Predict the 3D structure of the following.
Amino acid sequence: MDAGGISSIEQIEKFKSACGGKLDFTIGSALDIFGGDLAYDDVKNYK
Protein backbone atom coordinates (compact mmCIF):
# COMPACT_ATOMS: atom_id res chain seq x y z
CA MET A 1 0.00 0.00 0.00
CA ASP A 2 1.09 3.52 -0.58
CA ALA A 3 0.09 6.66 1.30
CA GLY A 4 -2.94 7.07 -0.97
CA GLY A 5 -4.41 3.66 -0.15
CA ILE A 6 -4.77 0.41 -2.05
CA SER A 7 -3.25 0.24 -5.53
CA SER A 8 -3.69 -3.41 -6.60
CA ILE A 9 -6.00 -6.40 -6.21
CA GLU A 10 -3.15 -8.19 -4.42
CA GLN A 11 -3.08 -5.43 -1.80
CA ILE A 12 -6.85 -5.78 -1.32
CA GLU A 13 -6.33 -9.49 -0.64
CA LYS A 14 -3.49 -8.84 1.83
CA PHE A 15 -5.44 -6.10 3.61
CA LYS A 16 -8.57 -8.24 3.85
CA SER A 17 -6.54 -11.12 5.26
CA ALA A 18 -4.66 -8.95 7.76
CA CYS A 19 -7.73 -7.25 9.22
CA GLY A 20 -10.24 -10.04 8.81
CA GLY A 21 -12.40 -7.81 6.61
CA LYS A 22 -13.27 -5.53 9.52
CA LEU A 23 -11.65 -2.32 8.24
CA ASP A 24 -12.31 -0.13 5.23
CA PHE A 25 -9.69 1.21 2.84
CA THR A 26 -9.37 3.80 0.11
CA ILE A 27 -8.31 3.32 -3.48
CA GLY A 28 -8.67 6.76 -5.04
CA SER A 29 -6.29 7.77 -7.78
CA ALA A 30 -5.06 4.20 -8.35
CA LEU A 31 -8.30 3.51 -10.26
CA ASP A 32 -8.17 3.58 -14.04
CA ILE A 33 -11.09 6.04 -14.15
CA PHE A 34 -8.77 8.54 -12.45
CA GLY A 35 -5.70 7.70 -14.54
CA GLY A 36 -4.31 4.86 -12.42
CA ASP A 37 -3.53 1.24 -13.28
CA LEU A 38 -6.19 -0.51 -11.17
CA ALA A 39 -9.30 -1.37 -13.19
CA TYR A 40 -12.51 -0.04 -11.65
CA ASP A 41 -14.43 -3.10 -12.89
CA ASP A 42 -11.93 -5.43 -11.19
CA VAL A 43 -12.49 -3.68 -7.85
CA LYS A 44 -16.26 -3.48 -8.33
CA ASN A 45 -16.43 -7.21 -9.04
CA TYR A 46 -13.95 -8.27 -6.32
CA LYS A 47 -15.35 -10.59 -3.66
Notes: The chain has a mean pLDDT of 87. Residues 33 and 40 are 7 Å apart (CA to CA).
